[in-house]
């Protein structure tokens, strides 16, 4: 089973991060040892000094190179990934997409309606590449801007409603589409390092949300197996 992580800055991570992708790799190693592969066209972290995805400085230098693969980008959202996902799925042979997008779209590029349209285009392109692809999508998670920017907060809330509707409309037996649940305990003051990007506890919670969704709905893997670094 081939998993592909798709996301924005919260998924690619910055130099020195573990990333929730790393936490998911640890989980998959525990629940699906030897029965999965992580795929994708990219492996880098975002380098803040260079303002580009050039870093390979993961917090755990032992994070295997093949497990670092992803399709995520700092400043990239549904708008950017919809045109890329078809080729990425075809080339990598992805079976399961774990997607966390939307915040950057609403913050800089598109409103909730436009973002929802791009979400549907993304799903269509992924299915054109693999009619049996499984997809788990994460709603826009809590973030600091929503605490002081009321119109932005309203757009986030509305997009999450539109995302839930899209999942309900587009879910099929052949190509299941699932909405992950943001943990109620997710706290931007303790689970992020800047009010938006996840720190270690936030990384575990995001990985755990994806793991729980797949296990509960599809029987893939098992309950989240958190591995705490020394």
Walkthrough of the structure:
- The protein has 230 residues and is of the alpha/beta class.
- It has a single domain, classed as Rossmann fold (3-Layer(aba) Sandwich), CATH 3.40.50.1110.
- Helix content is 43%, strand content 13%.
- It has eight helices and eight strands; from the N terminus they run βααββββαβααβααβα.
- The chain has helices spanning 9-12, 20-31, 78-92, 103-109, 112-129, 145-148, 150-170, 200-218, and strands at 2-7, 37-39, 45-47, 52-55, 71-72, 96-100, 134-138, 177-179.
- The strands form two sheets. Strands 1, 2, 5, 6, 7 and 8 form a six-stranded parallel sheet that branches. The protein has a two-stranded antiparallel sheet with strand order 3-4.
- Helix 2 packs across helix 8, helix 3 (78-92) packs parallel to helix 5 and helix 5 (112-129) runs parallel beside helix 7.
- The chain is globular.
- It starts with a strand and ends in a 12-residue tail after the last helix.
- The model has no long low-confidence stretch (mean pLDDT 96).
Topology:
Layout (H helix, E strand, L loop, with lengths): L1 E6 L1 H4 L7 H12 L5 E3 L5 E3 L4 E4 L15 E2 L5 H15 L3 E5 L2 H7 L2 H18 L4 E5 L6 H4 L1 H21 L6 E3 L20 H19 L12
Parallel strand pairs: 1-2, 1-5, 1-6, 6-7, 7-8
Antiparallel strand pairs: 3-4
Helix pairs in contact: 2-8, 3-5, 5-7
């Amino acid at each position: 089973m081939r998993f592909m992580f798709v996301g924005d800055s919260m998924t690619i991570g910055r130099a020195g991060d573990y990333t929730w992708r790393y936490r998911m790799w640890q989980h998959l190693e525990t629940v699906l040892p030897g029965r999965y592969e992580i795929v994708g066209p990219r492996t880098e972290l975002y380098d803040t000094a260079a303002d580009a995805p050039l870093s390979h400085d993961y917090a755990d230098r032992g994070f295997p190179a093949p497990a670092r693969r992803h399709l995520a980008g700092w400043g990239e959202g549904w708008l950017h990934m919809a045109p890329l996902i078809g080729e990425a799925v075809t080339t990598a042979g992805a079976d399961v997409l774990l997607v966390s997008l939307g915040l950057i779209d609403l913050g800089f590029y598109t409103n909730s309606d436009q973002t929802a349209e791009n979400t549907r285009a993304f799903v269509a392109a992924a299915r054109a590449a693999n009619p049996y692809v499984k997809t788990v999508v994460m709603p826009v998670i809590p973030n600091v801007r929503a605490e002081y920017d009321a119109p932005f907060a309203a757009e986030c809330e509305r997009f999450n409603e539109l995302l839930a509707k899209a999942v309900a409309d587009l879910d099929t037996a052949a190509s299941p589409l699932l909405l992950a649940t943001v943990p109620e305990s997710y706290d931007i003051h303790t689970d992020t390092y800047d009010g938006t990007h996840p720190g270690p506890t936030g990384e575990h919670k995001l990985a755990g949300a994806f793991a729980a969704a797949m296990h509960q709905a599809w029987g893939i893997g098992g309950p989240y197996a958190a591995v705490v670094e020394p």
